[in-house]
Design a protein that fits this description.
The protein is α+β, with helices and mostly antiparallel strands. Helices cover 51% and strands 19% of the residues. A 7-stranded mixed β-sheet has the order 10-22-21-20-11-18-19, sandwiched between helices. A 6-stranded antiparallel β-sheet has the order 2-1-3-9-4-7, with no helix packed on it. The chain has a 6-stranded antiparallel β-sheet with strand order 12-17-16-15-14-13, with helices on both faces.
C-alpha cells in the first residue's frame, strides 16, 4: 500500500477513535461534548472544508466537497453532532476506497510501463557501451544478456535464445529467437546472449507505441463516461436547489423549519454523485488494464464499449484466420512412398526461393545434400526440372506434366498441387495450402457462444479456397475475390445491416493491407500486430500476438466491463432515489443517508475493481 494511503488510513482510524470517545461524553456536559465532536469532525474533515472553500473562491461551487461541507455543518447547527461527524467519517472512508481502487488500477498499468528499459548496451569501436535507448541509432548492434529486457526493436545477427513476450502478447510460453528473426523491445531474454541489429529508434519502437496507446486511452471516453460527466454537471446544482426548496417550502407551510432543514441536509448527503462519477470511469479503466494484461491493447473506453455491442464480426483471411504461409497439407502417391515423393520434390525444389518450394523444404525438414542434385533449373510458370540421384525429375503444375507426356492426377483438395515425376514415371502429387491457425475454429465457436450473431470472411483469394477455409473454421458467410476497395464496399453494406439492429460491426485484419477497412468499421481490430506501424495507427484494438482466440477474450472483457457499469449505475440511482424519497417523507434518517452515499460508493467501487481481473477460465462473470 502506498505511503500516502497508509497515512490517510491512520488519520481515519484516529478520527474514528476520537468520534467513538465523543459518544461516551455525557449529554449534560454540553460544551465538552461539542468540543470533542468538533475535534473529531475537524480532524477528519479539514481537507474537505478546505477544498470546498477553495472551489467556492474559484467559482466551482457545486461539487461533492460542497455537498459534504453543507450537510455536515448543517447537522452541527441542528445539534446532530454524531450524525455530522459520522457523515464526514464515512465520506473519508469512501474516498479512501476510491483512491485505493484508482491506485490499484494505475499500478496495473504502471506494471506495463516497466516494459520500457532505461538502459541499452551497444557495440561501439569494439567495446560494449551502456547508453540510454534514445541515443542508439538504427543499424547499431544491440547486446542483450540473459535476464535483460530488450531495449529496442531489432533483427538477430548472432545467438539463439528464449524470449519471454508475456508483457507484450500475454503469451505464457517463451518464443525462440534465432538469427534472422525480428525481436521487439519489451521482451525478456531468458537464457543466452543475443546480438541485434537495431531497426527502429527508441521513440518509434514497439514498446513506445504500446505505452503511448495505453497512456492516451483515458482521453477517449465512452458514451457512458461522457453521459455521467454531463449528468454530474447538471445533477449537483439541481439537487442543491431541490434541497433548498425542500427546506423552505414545507417549513413555511408546517412552521417546523428544524424538521425540514434536517430532511434537506439528509437529501444533500444522499444525492452526492460519487458512486457514479468514480465507478463508471474506474470500470472502463480496469477493463482496459485487464485487457492489456491479456495481450489486447484497447485505445480507449469508447472502443471497449463499442466492442461490447458487437453482433457482427468480419475477418480478413490471410494472416488473420490462416497462417499466411504455405504448408504441405496432403501427399497423394501413385508410385513409391510418401517419404520418397516428398524427398524427391524437396531436393529438386531446393534451388528456388518460391514460397511453394520453401514449404516443401520445411516439410522435408532435413538438410539438402546438394551432391545428389544437378542440372536444376526453374521453368517459368511451370515448375522445376533437375537430376536427382541420377534420375530426371520434374516437379510443378499440371501443365508441366502434360508437356512431358505425363497424365497428372486430378486435384484431391483445395490448394496448390505440386506434381512429381521421375524418368517419365508419375510419382504422385503434394497439396500445398495456407492452413487455418490452430485456434481459428475455436475463436469462431467462442464468439458465437458469446452471442455474436454473424461472422463474415472478406478475402481476395479464390472462391474455392475461401469456401474451404470458411467451412473449416465455421464462418457463417464469405465473400471472395475482393480488391481492397471491394472490401470497403462490403463493410459499408455490413455497417448498414448492423446499425438496423443497434449492434456494432468489428473488422479483424492483419493491419498491413487492411488499414482502410480497419478505419471504416465501428471497431477495427488488428491481429498479430506486434511491431506493425499500420496496425497500431489504423486499428482501435490491437491483438498483440497471432491468436484469433484473443478476439473472444477481448469481447468477453468488454461485455463484462459494460455489465459492471450498468450494475453500478442502476444500483446507485435506485438506492439514492429510494432513500431520497423516504428521507423527504421522514422515513429515513442520517444513517440511511450515509449508506446511500458512502455505502453505495464503496460497493460500486469494489464492483468496478472486478473489471481489472481477466477471466482465466474463459467464462463470463456476472
Amino acid at each position: 500500500m502506498p505511503e500516502k494511503l497508509k497515512k490517510r488510513l491512520i488519520r481515519i482510524a484516529i478520527g474514528a477513535g476520537i468520534f467513538a470517545g465523543a459518544l461516551f461524553v455525557p449529554a449534560a456536559w454540553k460544551w465538552a461534548r461539542l468540543a470533542v465532536f468538533l475535534a473529531a469532525y475537524f480532524f477528519l474533515g479539514w481537507n474537505v472544508l478546505l477544498k470546498a472553500g477553495k472551489n467556492i473562491v474559484r467559482g466551482k461551487v457545486f461539487d461533492e466537497n460542497f455537498l459534504m461541507a453543507l450537510a455536515t455543518v448543517g447537522a452541527f447547527a441542528l445539534g446532530e453532532y454524531p450524525e455530522g461527524v459520522a457523515v464526514m467519517l464515512f465520506y473519508q472512508v469512501g474516498e479512501w476506497f476510491e483512491d485505493f481502487a484508482v491506485g490499484r488500477s494505475r499500478r496495473s498499468i504502471a506494471a506495463l510501463m516497466d516494459i520500457r528499459p532505461d538502459r541499452a548496451t551497444v557495440q561501439r569501436d569494439g567495446q560494449n557501451v551502456t547508453v540510454p535507448p534514445e541515443e542508439v541509432q538504427v543499424g547499431e548492434i544491440l547486446v542483450v544478456d540473459p535476464g535483460e529486457r530488450v531495449a529496442l526493436d531489432g533483427v538477430v545477427t548472432q545467438g539463439e535464445a528464449l524470449l519471454d513476450t508475456a508483457a507484450l502478447t500475454g503469451e505464457s510460453l517463451p518464443r525462440t529467437a534465432v538469427v534472422g528473426d525480428e525481436v521487439y523491445s519489451g521482451c525478456i531474454d531468458l537464457n543466452a546472449r543475443l546480438h541485434l541489429r537495431v531497426t527502429r529508434l527508441a521513440e518509434e519502437s514497439t514498446v513506445a507505441k504500446i505505452l503511448d496507446m495505453v497512456e492516451n486511452a483515458a482521453a477517449r471516453k465512452s458514451h457512458s463516461e461522457a453521459f455521467i460527466t454531463r449528468f454530474a454537471r447538471w445533477y449537483t446544482p439541481a439537487v442543491v436547489i431541490a434541497a433548498a426548496l425542500l427546506a423552505l417550502i414545507p417549513s413555511l407551510i408546517t412552521r417546523q423549519p428544524a424538521v425540514w432543514v434536517q430532511r434537506a441536509l439528509l437529501f444533500l448527503v444522499v444525492s452526492c454523485p460519487c458512486a457514479l462519477v468514480i465507478s463508471v470511469p474506474l470500470s472502463f479503466f480496469g477493463g482496459i488494464g485487464g485487457a492489456s494484461r491479456a495481450g489486447v491493447l484497447i485505445k480507449g473506453s469508447n472502443y471497449l464499449e463499442a466492442l461490447a455491442r458487437a453482433d457482427t464480426i468480419a475477418f480478413d483471411k490471410t494472416g488473420t484466420l490462416t497462417r499466411g504461409e504455405f504448408s504441405v497439407s496432403a501427399i497423394e502417391t501413385k508410385s513409391g512412398t510418401a517419404e520418397v515423393l516428398l524427398e524427391t520434390a524437396a531436393l529438386a525444389e531446393h534451388i528456388s526461393n518460391h514460397p511453394i518450394a520453401l514449404s516443401l523444404q520445411k516439410a522435408y525438414a532435413k538438410p539438402v545434400d546438394e551432391k545428389r542434385v544437378s542440372n536444376a533449373q526453374e521453368m517459368a510458370g511451370l515448375g522445376i526440372c533437375a537430376q536427382v540421384d541420377g534420375r530426371q525429375v520434374y516437379a510443378g503444375n499440371a501443365r508441366l506434366m502434360e508437356s512431358q507426356g505425363i497424365s497428372p492426377a486430378p486435384p484431391e483438395g483445395v490448394g496448390t498441387q505440386v506434381h512429381v515425376a521421375a524418368d517419365g514415371v508419375y510419382l504422385g502429387s503434394i497439396l500445398i495450402r495456407d492452413t487455418p491457425k490452430a485456434d481459428a475454429a475455436k475463436a469462431i465457436r467462442d464468439l458465437k457462444a458469446l452471442g455474436v450473431r454473424r461472422t463474415v470472411m472478406l478475402t481476395g483469394d479464390a472462391p474455392l479456397v475461401a469456401k474451404a477455409v470458411a467451412d473449416e473454421v465455421g464462418i457463417d458467410e464469405y465473400h471472395a475475390g475482393l480488391m481492397p476497395l471491394d472490401k470497403v464496399e462490403r463493410v459499408e453494406n455490413l455497417l448498414g445491416e448492423t446499425s438496423q439492429g443497434k449492434g456494432t460491426l468489428a473488422f479483424v485484419g492483419d493491419g498491413i493491407n487492411d488499414a482502410p477497412v480497419l478505419s471504416r468499421a465501428d471497431v477495427g481490430i488488428a491481429m498479430g500486430a506486434l511491431g506493425s506501424d499500420a496496425a497500431i495507427e489504423a486499428a482501435d484494438i490491437v491483438i498483440m500476438d497471432d491468436s484469433p482466440a484473443r478476439i473472444a477474450v477481448a469481447v468477453r472483457i468488454a461485455r463484462k466491463t459494460q455489465r459492471i457499469v450498468r450494475q453500478n449505475v442502476t444500483f446507485a440511482l435506485a438506492v439514492k432515489l429510494v432513500v431520497m424519497v423516504l428521507g423527504a417523507l421522514g422515513y429515513a434518517d442520517m444513517w440511511a443517508a450515509v449508506f446511500a452515499d458512502v455505502g453505495v460508493s464503496v460497493l460500486a467501487i469494489l464492483n468496478a475493481m472486478r473489471a481489472q481481473r481477466p477471466d482465466k477460465k474463459g467464462k463470463e462473470n456476472a
